[in-house]
């Protein structure tokens, strides 16, 4: 239905009918209106599988949903570093949504992983906004190809579960722009999701759902978003204020309470008819955008989608450690598979994204099908630890008589979920004890991890191999066995840093906040931006992931040595597979700025590309960088700004494994407005390309000359004098330069501040 017809419907609706339409009918459905030919449509949870509930409605994964496919969670799919993979996932998910009459899937989730403790980190993609944005872009494109909407969430700064419905994320403007808004910005501009979901929390004291600044000024006016904004479930603080701010649809339905509030606001003039009509138009546009394309159901092929889930897992699982090339396994080796997750894998998170998987493939089942020579021992039981020692000894015995031991460990369901944050970063102690005991009797021990976010590894030096599967979806068992045996060459990379200890994390001291106040004191120094800047040792760095082959980097070429910030820089680099098997490499491009006036991370990811190379093959990977690759958010301009200076282009296999680098000089074309005063320092003025020469000309005859430069015993050295002058405010010239008057200083300021 076109815009004109929708407007005609709205013109015929009463205020009461329009007000009623701004909230849901019930937990999952929007309202219908037979009088105007408006059908009822449904939204459903995601984002790594369809959770359509057919009986009782809930938002915490308690009630069962239709049988569907559980794809790898965002924590794993992001490790593919390949938007085509999340697009493939979204494509299957979109087909399922069409089949089950779901108008929109509630995802993707792109909130930044500020701390490993975030209870919902398993849904989120990365600690880096570029990775989060690109993965989300692929997901949105895949789903919406099937004329089904997505709802990118949770906008904005929903980085913890603790008191998430009342807490205030207190963040400075620059940090918001560079990290927390940036993750949403790229995906919204490039993929155009049908809807945006506002978060529960406040930002700097104001509920996001009440914020015209975020929902209208930035989201709509600046980014050009023209879709519908819906609330998180029960996430409306002030219905009239939120409607004026740009929150169109309240979910779920709340009866007549908020409808009457809207009607009263129109009647008393605090809400205009135009504002109400605008919200209703966005809702109706959303409904008919789906309905008009929903002429026939897409066929449901769950087996196909299961294979997609397996492919996504295989493209994303990360080989963290492979000492002495213990992997891949030899087909003749006797293997011990240890740990209950080898039989019942932990493959998804808890809460609103919990999927009723139509089938699950375990590693034991996959190993049996493949004909591997293995023995199995449970090793532990998450639910009942009364026989823990007995299970451990059985596992040790099985490991001892095998040639390789593979321990399946991870976080139990109760350790991480929507609704609460983790309290520690450790695995259960009985699992750590099991791994150590197995490694003592079996030197070829490999650990398979099932977890939604980083864990500490006190046994890391005792084992030869570590594979991170995160929450790998219902096909994770087959994917793991394929990687263990070399049928699949691992190519995943960490989209977040694994610190050695929880205390190493930059948000450690203030994560969770005090009461409802959560101060983001680490600023832009989140994840690898902090660890690299502080030179803090980590367990595994951002971007890390091993392969069964090797790659050589060579021939880094920048097409220019100097550019303006309005220009684009082309970067080419050759990558060669120097091993004996085909493999995929994620080529990562980082930018490092020389030390300037602005405190910045020492290195930031600005581009990446995943490529497939046959043995001996070389490919040239090309990147194009624009202004934003060199810019920071300047609060005086309220815009991106580049400091004139030298920037180093770094190409590597991880943030800590840089293979090649070259410098480019970037010149700014924008001057930051500045108003000098008597407290402005000489150093700041002299560094100004416009004001500096003016000051030098005025002070040429006034500099102190009484310091003897040839006297090694002089109390005042040249270095000391330079430092003092650099930090000296203009007003101090009255004290140190004979004859200077206040009138003269004010005259100097007039000249310096001339535009």
Question: Can you describe this structure?
Answer:
- This protein has 755 residues and is α/β, with parallel strands linked by helices.
- It folds into four domains: 38-68 and 79-251, Alpha-Beta Barrel (TIM Barrel), CATH 3.20.20; 302-496, Glycoside hydrolase family 3 C-terminal domain (Rossmann fold, 3-Layer(aba) Sandwich); 551-667, Sandwich (Immunoglobulin-like), CATH 2.60.40.10; 682-752, no CATH class.
- 30% of the residues lie in helices and 19% in strands.
- It contains 22 helices and 27 strands.
- The strands form seven sheets. It has a six-stranded mixed sheet with strand order 9-14-13-12-10-11, sandwiched between helices.
- Helix 1 packs across helix 11 (273-291) and helix 12 packs across helix 16 (476-484).
- The longest helix has 19 residues, at 273-291.
Write the layout of secondary structure elements.
Elements (H helix, E strand, L loop, with lengths): L2 H10 L2 H6 L22 E3 L28 H4 L5 H17 L4 E3 L22 H16 L4 E7 L12 E3 L2 H8 L1 H10 L3 E4 L3 E2 L2 E2 L4 H11 L5 E4 L7 H7 L11 H12 L4 H19 L10 H15 L1 E5 L12 E4 L24 H8 L3 E4 L10 H13 L3 E7 L18 H13 L3 E6 L14 E4 L7 H9 L13 E2 L17 E3 L8 H7 L3 E3 L10 E8 L3 E3 L4 E9 L5 E11 L10 E10 L4 E8 L6 E3 L4 E3 L3 E10 L2 E11 L14 H6 L3 H9 L18 H10 L5 H4 L5 H11 L3
Parallel strand pairs: 1-2, 2-3, 3-5, 4-6, 4-16, 5-8, 10-11, 10-12, 12-13, 13-14, 19-27
Antiparallel strand pairs: 6-7, 9-14, 15-17, 18-20, 20-23, 21-22, 21-26, 24-25, 26-27
Helix pairs in contact: 1-11, 4-5, 4-12, 5-7, 12-16, 13-16, 14-15
């Amino acid at each position: 239905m076109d815009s004109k017809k929708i407007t005609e419907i709205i013109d015929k609706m009463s205020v009461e009918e329009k007000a009623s339409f701004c909230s849901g009918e019930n937990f999952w459905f929007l309202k219908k209106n037979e009088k105007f030919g408006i059908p009822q449509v449904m939204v459903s949870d995601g984002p790594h599988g369809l959770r359509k509930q057919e009986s009782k409605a809930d938002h915490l994964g308690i009630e069962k949903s239709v049988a569907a496919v559980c794809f790898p969670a965002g924590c794993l799919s992001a490790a593919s570093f390949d938007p085509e993979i999340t697009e493939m996932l979204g494509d299957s998910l979109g087909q399922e949504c069409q089949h089950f009459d779901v108008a929109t899937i509630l995802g993707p989730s792109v909130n930044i992983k500020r701390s490993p403790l975030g209870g919902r980190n398993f849904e989120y993609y990365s600690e880096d906004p570029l990775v989060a944005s690109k993965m989300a872009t692929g997901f949105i494109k895949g789903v919406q190809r099937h004329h089904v909407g997505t709802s990118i969430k949770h906008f904005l700064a929903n980085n913890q579960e603790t008191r998430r419905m009342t807490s205030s994320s207190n963040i400075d403007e620059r940090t918001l722009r560079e990290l927390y808004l940036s993750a949403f910005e790229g995906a919204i501009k490039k993929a155009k999701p049908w809807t945006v979901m506002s978060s529960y929390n406040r930002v700097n004291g104001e509920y996001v759902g009440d914020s015209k600044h975020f929902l209208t000024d930035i989201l709509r006016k600046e980014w050009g978003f023209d879709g519908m904004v819906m609330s998180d479930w029960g996430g409306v603080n002030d219905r009239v204020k939120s409607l004026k701010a740009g929150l169109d649809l309240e979910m779920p339905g709340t009866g007549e309470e908020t409808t009457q509030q809207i009607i009263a606001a129109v009647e008393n003039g605090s809400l205009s008819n135009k504002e109400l009509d605008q919200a209703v138009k966005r809702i109706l546009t959303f409904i008919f955008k789906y309905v008009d394309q929903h002429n026939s159901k897409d066929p449901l092929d769950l087996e196909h989608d299961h294979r997609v889930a397996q492919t996504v897992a295989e493209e994303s699982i990360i080989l963290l450690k492979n000492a002495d090339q213990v992997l891949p396994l030899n087909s003749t080796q006797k293997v011990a598979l240890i740990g209950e997750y080898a039989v019942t894998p932990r493959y998804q998170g808890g809460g609103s994204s919990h999927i009723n998987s139509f089938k699950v493939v375990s590693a034991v089942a996959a190993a049996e099908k493949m004909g591997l020579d293995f023995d199995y021992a449970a090793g532990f039981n998450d639910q009942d630890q009364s026989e823990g020692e007995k299970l451990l000894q059985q596992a040790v015995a099985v490991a001892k008589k095998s040639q390789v031991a593979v321990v399946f460990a991870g976080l139990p369901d109760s350790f991480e979920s929507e609704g609460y944050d983790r309290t520690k970063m450790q695995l259960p102690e009985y699992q750590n004890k099991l791994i150590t005991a197995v490694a003592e009797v079996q030197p070829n021990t490999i650990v398979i991890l099932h977890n939604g976010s980083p864990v500490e590894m006190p046994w890391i030096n005792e084992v030869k191999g570590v594979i991170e599967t995160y929450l790998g979806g219902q096909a994770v068992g087959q994917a793991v066995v394929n990687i263990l045996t070399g049928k699949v060459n691992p190519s995943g990379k960490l989209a977040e840093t694994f610190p050695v200890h929880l205390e190493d994390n930059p948000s450690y001291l203030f994560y969770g906040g005090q009461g409802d106040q959560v101060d983001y004191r680490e600023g832009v120094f989140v994840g690898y931006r902090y660890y690299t800047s502080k030179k803090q040792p980590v367990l595994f760095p951002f971007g890390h992931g091993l392969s069964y082959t090797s790659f050589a980097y060579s021939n880094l070429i920048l097409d220019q040595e100097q550019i303006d910030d309005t220009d684009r820089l082309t970067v080419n680099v050759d990558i060669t597979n120097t091993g004996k098997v085909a493999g995929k490499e994620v080529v990562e491009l980082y930018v490092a700025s020389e030390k300037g006036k602005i405190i910045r991370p020492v290195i930031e990811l600005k581009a990446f590309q995943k490529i497939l190379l046959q043995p001996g093959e070389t490919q040239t990977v090309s990147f194009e960088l624009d202004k934003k690759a060199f810019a920071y958010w300047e609060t005086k301009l309220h815009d991106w700004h580049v400091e004139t200076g030298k920037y180093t282009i770094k190409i590597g296999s991880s943030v800590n494994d840089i293979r090649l680098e070259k410098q480019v000089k970037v010149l700014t074309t924008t001057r930051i407005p500045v108003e000098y005063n008597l407290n402005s320092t000489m150093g700041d003025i002299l560094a100004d390309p416009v004001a500096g020469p003016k000051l030098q000309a005025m002070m040429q005859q006034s500099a102190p000359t009484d310091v003897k430069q040839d006297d090694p015993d002089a109390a005042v050295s040249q270095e000391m004098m330079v430092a003092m002058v650099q930090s000296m405010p203009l007003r101090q010239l009255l004290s140190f330069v004979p004859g200077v008057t206040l009138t003269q200083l004010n005259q100097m300021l007039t000249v310096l501040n001339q535009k």
